[in-house]
């Protein structure tokens, strides 16, 4: 492995990696939150991994992304069955995420209740607002469109777009910690479906104590796993 290896592990960019880093790889237990040095390494590694994964995702053609989004929508249907009466949080796609807005319309047609996540404040949990295609949107944090008027709801199902995902169903997101913080704070845990492309699967995100695994993952290749 060289310092340029895209799969380098945390610390690998140093001439002398911190001596404990070899213990991280393959570690089944969450690492120690009280160890700030280790977390600093993981955070640095995640930032670099995130950037590479987002760049790779944006290189996929829009047509191919649309095809994969359609397969993912089928996989979600297979996973949740009838959505009638269920509140399902989706997301407004950005940075090449699967576009499930067509599926959102079919959700409404089948009696489901879509919602979108809203960042109220950095460092705080997300809230979810009811949203149906055509409802008024406004610009939220990072310019992500959010429902302007929707009532606040608690979702039964949360569809979470991943930047990366590992075999333990741990999600690498954009680095705000929003989904983890939100799941930790919700009164009842929803079914959390991570969605992404096969190319976003990675061997580990180096899960930390704050990382909450998703219930299942749906990609273009396979249904629920
Ligand atoms: N489409 C979509 N909407 C979503 C999410 C998502 O993952 N996808 N979210 C899921 O959580 C929330 C937004 N989360 C975000 C978290 C961080 C950044 C962001 O730009 N972060 C900085 C770095 C932050 C840091 O490292 O401290 C950046 O990339 O420059 C953007 C959105 C709610 N809405
Ligand atoms: N339940 C929580 N309580 C307090 N802080 C948290 C919680 N969950 C995550 N965080 C903090 O959020 C920050 C970012 O976490 P992480 O790298 O896991 O983000 P992410 O999952 O990639 O981002 P996102 O969910 O926004 O897409 C970390 O500093 C972490 O400590």
Automatic annotation (TrEMBL):
<dbReference type="InterPro" id="IPR002698">
    <property type="entry name" value="FTHF_cligase"/>
</dbReference>
<keyword id="KW-0436">Ligase</keyword>
<dbReference type="GO" id="GO:0009396">
    <property type="term" value="P:folic acid-containing compound biosynthetic process"/>
</dbReference>
<protein>
    <recommendedName>
        <fullName>5-formyltetrahydrofolate cyclo-ligase</fullName>
        <ecNumber>6.3.3.2</ecNumber>
    </recommendedName>
</protein>
<comment type="similarity">
    <text>Belongs to the 5-formyltetrahydrofolate cyclo-ligase family.</text>
</comment>
<dbReference type="GO" id="GO:0035999">
    <property type="term" value="P:tetrahydrofolate interconversion"/>
</dbReference>
<keyword id="KW-0547">Nucleotide-binding</keyword>
<keyword id="KW-0479">Metal-binding</keyword>
<dbReference type="InterPro" id="IPR024185">
    <property type="entry name" value="FTHF_cligase-like_sf"/>
</dbReference>
<dbReference type="GO" id="GO:0046872">
    <property type="term" value="F:metal ion binding"/>
</dbReference>
<keyword id="KW-0460">Magnesium</keyword>
<dbReference type="GO" id="GO:0005524">
    <property type="term" value="F:ATP binding"/>
</dbReference>
<dbReference type="InterPro" id="IPR037171">
    <property type="entry name" value="NagB/RpiA_transferase-like"/>
</dbReference>
<dbReference type="Pfam" id="PF01812">
    <property type="entry name" value="5-FTHF_cyc-lig"/>
</dbReference>
<keyword id="KW-0067">ATP-binding</keyword>
<dbReference type="GO" id="GO:0030272">
    <property type="term" value="F:5-formyltetrahydrofolate cyclo-ligase activity"/>
</dbReference>
